[in-house]
Amino acid sequence: MSAPASATADELNPAAAAPAPVAAVPIEQPVPHIALLLPLKSPAFAKAADAVKQGFLAAAGREKNGLAVRVYPCADESSEVAAIYQQALLAGAVAVAGPLTRSGVAALAANTELMTPTLALNTVEGERSDQLYFFGLPAEAEARQSAQRATNAGLLSASIVSTNTPLSRRLAQAFSDEWQRAGGILRAEIVFTGDPSPLKELPEEPGNSVFLAAELDKARLLRPYINAVLPVYSTSQVFSGNANTLVNYDLSDVRFVDMPWMLQPDHPAVMIYPRSATPLPPELDRLYALGIDSYRLLQVLFNHDYANLLPLDGVTGKVTLYGHMFQREATLAIMRQGQGVPVDSRYR
To answer: Is the dihedral of CA 192, 174, 341, 136 positive or negative?
Structure first.
């Protein structure tokens, strides 16, 4: 270790001077704070992590006399999160948000007893009896909600149209499971590989519907081949915002679920929080909103005020706690004249 620049020759030569008393090294005292654990150094997840961080800090900035937020970045959550979590606790963290990735959450959840209020920003299976809670934006949850909306609308049968991508398969499976759990009839499962003919032959009987398990680019191609008399449901995957009017026209009358942050600028919670200083693409804007509601939910956990603060009327939706899992109810909307328009709960 090199000597301080201000050291004298006598200080460097013990034979030339009498030994000086050794000064005690000050020990940094733990400071109560909120820890935010994110993969900000990860090439794959840095942009997503930064969007969450922006939203989290935006919400924290609205909190008068709130605890300071300290950000703990990492590169690989699955291998680093346990050590970083302990580092945060030693530094005085009294509440923790993160990690963000599914693998990181799984690594943290491997600890059987976490006694500091902790909100993981993704979901994993398993029961908990400690202070670890989960909140995320799983696409499968939106597929299940689409099935519930179609069931509530009195529709009796459904056909699923998917595209054979990993995400599309997960959406199709989640819808199918929820649809059949509620007693709905599954009429057909069509995997689109380029031939639109099967789409034109979907049953048009009253009570039938279609679930479009597809990302935006494929959904635009598929929608025109589906008879307009059939109610079509999907997820936020088909919505890229109301500035994208031409794309939305291609998805005319598709019903989908998304968060108030994307659909309802006049929503009471949405109006409170600032948008990102740099406009974000839709997928990152949703993560920004996740950051906002994550901060608010962590306050619920820290203050143990479940009765008064839940369900949360959040920017991501209505958030309710089931066990250790926070689940959000998204907003139902429909594509009309190039716009995603929220629909009244009585209208499906």
So the answer is: negative
Rounded-to-integer distance, Cα 180 and Cα 189, Å: 13
Q: Whole-prediction pTM value?
A: 0.90
Q: What is the pLDDT of residues 96-120, one digit of tens each?
A: 999 999 999 999 999 878 999 999 9
**Which SS3 state, helix, strand or coil, does residue 236 take?**
helix
CB-CB contact of 202 with 230 (8 Å): yes
Are the C-beta atoms of residues 85 and 108 closer than 8 Å to each other? yes
Q: Which residues of the chain have pLDDT under 70?
A: 1-28, 344-348
Sign of the four-CA dihedral 274, 279, 281, 282: positive
Domains, in order of start, for the chain? 30-134+264-329 (3.40.50.2300), 140-259+330-342 (3.40.50.2300)
**Tokens encoding 220:** 């635009």
Q: What is the dihedral of CA 38, 238, 163, 229, to 10 degrees?
A: 150
Kindly list the distances between the CA atom of residue 251 and the CA atoms of 7, 112, 248, 257, 281, in Å, as whole numbers in the listed order: 73, 46, 5, 14, 19
Q: Which amino acid, 265?
A: P
Spatial separation of the C-alpha atoms in residues 320 and 299, rounded to whole Å: 14
